[in-house]
Design a protein that fits this description.
The protein has five helices and five strands; from the N terminus they run H-E-E-E-H-H-H-H-E-E. The chain has 99 residues and is α+β, with helices and mostly antiparallel strands. It has one domain. It has a three-stranded antiparallel sheet. The protein has a two-stranded antiparallel ribbon with strand order 4-5. Strand 1 and strand 2 form a beta hairpin. The two termini are 29 Å apart.
């Protein structure tokens, strides 16, 4: 369990739906971020490793090395690549901000 999971209102909401051939994990960022949910399709094997990560037995990158960095971030925070890009673009320069 992460620190965010222990602070009310800071943890993303996660829902799992079983589908043919696997599981869809939908992660909604905390309400204060006002971002849409993101979903990742996991195979049954990946889902077992996902549960090990959620139970604190493995780091996510060790549990799911076969997923992209974008999918790992979706599972961690519920934030997709477009939203990350939007958060780090310096609108005055149209480029990635430096701080």
């Amino acid at each position: 369990m992460s620190l965010a999971d222990k602070i009310p209102g800071w943890a993303p909401d996660r829902k799992v739906t079983e589908v043919d051939g696997g599981f869809v994990v939908t992660v909604t960022p905390p309400d204060f971020m006002a971002l849409p949910p993101e979903s990742v399709l996991l195979t049954p094997d990946q889902f077992e490793r996902y549960k090990e990560w959620r139970n604190g037995l493995l780091l996510i990158q060790d549990a799911l090395p076969d997923l992209s960095q974008e999918d790992l971030e979706r599972l961690i925070s519920g934030i997709g690549p477009a939203e990350w890009q939007d958060m780090w673009v310096d609108e005055s320069e149209g480029d990635i901000g430096t701080g």
